[in-house]
Amino acid sequence: MSEASEAFRRVALLATHHHTDLDAAARLMTAHAWVGGGAPHFAASLATHRGSLQSALTLALSCLSQAVARAGAPAPVIPHLITRPPQVAVAPAAHGPFRGIDPRAMSGLVTALDSAADRLTAAGERLRAELTALALPASPAWTVLRAAEWSATQSPGLRRRLAKIQRTHPWIPSGVAAYDLFGSHSFPCDALLSRLAAGDPASLAELLVVRDAALPARVNAWWHALAPGTRLRLTTMPGFGSLDGLPAAVRDQANRHRLATEKARLTARPHTVYGPAAFASIAADLRALSPPRALLAHEEAVRQLASISMIEHALAVAGTSGHPPAYLLSFDLTGTGRLVVSWGDPDAADITVTYVPGLNSRLSDFAGDIDRARLLWQQSQATAGARTIASIAWLGYDAPQLAGTFTPGASVAGDAPAARGAVELAAFADGLTAARTSPGRHVVLGHSYGSLVTGKAARLRPFKLADELIFVGSPGVGVDHADELGVPGGHVWVGEDGNDPVAKLGRFGRDPGSTAFGARHFPVGRNLLQDAHSSYWNPHSASLRNLGLIVTGNSERLVAPFSPQTPQLLMPEFQQQTFGQIR
Asked: Sorting pLDDT into bands at 50, 70 and 90, what band is 274?
């Protein structure tokens, strides 16, 4: 056998062993070991070197095959060395704000690069020797060595950053540490965050209206990087606790401080307490202001104090008689008001459920909705086993009011309030995700007009808003089929009381209760006509029990409503009055 034939045999064996040396790294990137924050550039470079490696080995064998033929022997067949690139199931994130990393997959990527660097260095040197010995061009060997050098230069930087993440986790969530280590440092709101850290309240006002999906993750990373003294100072800044992406405990601390501050401010005004001092103060106001303005200021102060009292009462039962800790995640006393309260820590809970209310929801009457979230926490926790639950009452938007039915842009008859609310709900969900300290399940429950808000928010964050959507008493969710809502198939639920008039409307898209909509139905039952629309949280009801089972992923255990063994009457309302409420 000729010298060229022996060289071809040795190089063919070498190529077979090394042409896939960068495939493992490529597979890990395809599996989203690292998404965003420099990953697109790295993935492109990896693909280039991987392709060049395989082409160089093929070229070297082609040169050797021709040398064999020139020596008078049949040209050997060149093995196929070009492997298909790993298929990307979901399009990789584009350049821009950081998306995230998987520390375990990133660790595998570093190991793969280390191995490729060592293996390709040895392979390149051997290939160079084989080609040089036959006076053939050594350029294929230099291409292999460049791939080895690239792998070696990438690995140390990734290893250092990964080591820092592993040191800080679980004290700092891995995604938080990764943001500053892998993320883009030109995030549009970084200047605002820097000003906020310096104590600028105007920057907070600007940040609170930004609805960039990447902002909460950046806020969370920024917060964990702050010095303790700066953190303490910021928690006393009015409105700071409403910033999505902050840990729930921080939001709670900041909002409780603000609540106490607002109460002290309002009670310091004599005209907020009825009595001689009140009338004297009102008289002074009347002299300084027009009578309507003075009286309106007085009424507004009294109303806000009543709202503060309601919030304090709701928070007071937390941690007592089996109640979980309560977290005050946001509030606003102005206008119809806003309030977000969580029963249980949403950052650490295994399962979080967010309840979105509908028509006529307002701060002054929100105590009942907070109680609904509490009842759902109790029911869900009862079927959750060892898993923990956080149940959130979310009045984070300006819900339409019955009195504003004929007001353009604010009417329950239109979807404008829902469109605005959906943006707020999506941002809140982004914040929950950013602040989580471990993976968890998120469920969103929309009631009445709140189901339309939920449906629109789901379309703003496809496959990110929630793992499960539940609609009760829904007039429509803005789409004609459950598949349009951006949640996994079979994870959209609908419950309708048999006498709920709102659930029969189908005003905003196809009726979610219809078979054609494609959602899964859970048993609810039938209540008195005047009670049906608000019956879904009735204690001990089949509806509440089933809500808890869906939240915890135990849908195979759904229960049927109690039905007395009586003849079916033409008027179900009369039947219930006669035989008792069906549960």
From this structure: very low
As a whole number of angstroms, the distance between CA 294 and CA 287 comes to 9
Report residue 577: phi and psi, to 5°: -65, -30
Sign, CA torsion 6/9/11/13: negative
pLDDT number for residue 18: 96
CA proximity to 459, closest of 486, 424, 427, 488: 486
The 10 Å Cβ neighbour count of residue 140 is 27
Amino acid type, 327: Y
Residue 323 CA to chain centroid, in angstroms?
26
**Alpha-carbon Rg of the chain, whole angstroms?**
32
Instruction: Give the residue from 117, 135, 114 showing the smallest Cα distance to 53.
Output: 117
Query: What CA–CA distance (Å, rounded) separates 250 from 222?
Result: 13
Token pair for residue 38? 């420099």
Contact between residue 281 and residue 302 where contact means Cβ atoms under 8 Å apart: no
Phi/psi of residue 192, nearest 5 degrees? -65, -40
For helices 23-30 and 103-133, angle between their N-to-C axes, nearest 10 degrees = 150
Instruction: Provide the b/e sequence for 478-503 (b: ≥16 CB within 10 Å).
Output: bbbebebbbbeeebbbbbbbebbebb
Number of residues assigned to the chain: 583
| CB-CB contact of 576 with 525 (8 Å) | no
Q: How far is CA 277 from CA 87, 120, 284, 309, in A?
A: 76, 87, 11, 22
Residues 6+ apart with CB under 8 A from 267: 273, 305
Phi, psi values for residue 10, rounded to 5°: -65, -45
pLDDT tens for 67-119 read 999 999 999 999 999 988 776 544 444 445 566 778 888 899 999 999 999 99
Give the separation between CA 551 and CA 293, rounded to whole angstroms: 48
Q: Where are the alpha helices (DSSP H) in 134-213?
A: 139-168, 174-182, 190-197, 201-207
Vertex 276 angle, CA 273 and 282, to 5°: 70
Residue 93 CA: distances (Å) to CA of 29, 86, 99, 182, 216 = 12, 16, 7, 14, 17
**Cα–Cα distance between 486 and 460 in angstroms, integer?**
9
The token pair at 328 is 């005050």
DSSP state of 402: G
- How confident is the model at residue 378, as a pLDDT? 95
List the alpha helices (DSSP H) in 335-415: 367-382
Residues 162 and 107: beta-carbon distance below 8 Å: yes
Q: Give the bridge partners for 72, in sequence order.
A: none
Rounded to two decimals, the pTM is 0.71
DSSP bridge pairs for 332: 338
Beta bridge partners of 521: 494
Q: What is the pLDDT of residues 145-164, one digit of tens each?
A: 999 999 999 999 899 888 88
CA gap 219, 190 in Å, rounded: 9
Alpha carbon of residue 367 to chain centroid: 26
Q: If you write DSSP's letter for every residue of 476-507 in order, what string do you get?
A: --SSSSGGGGSS-TT-EEEE--TT-SGGG---
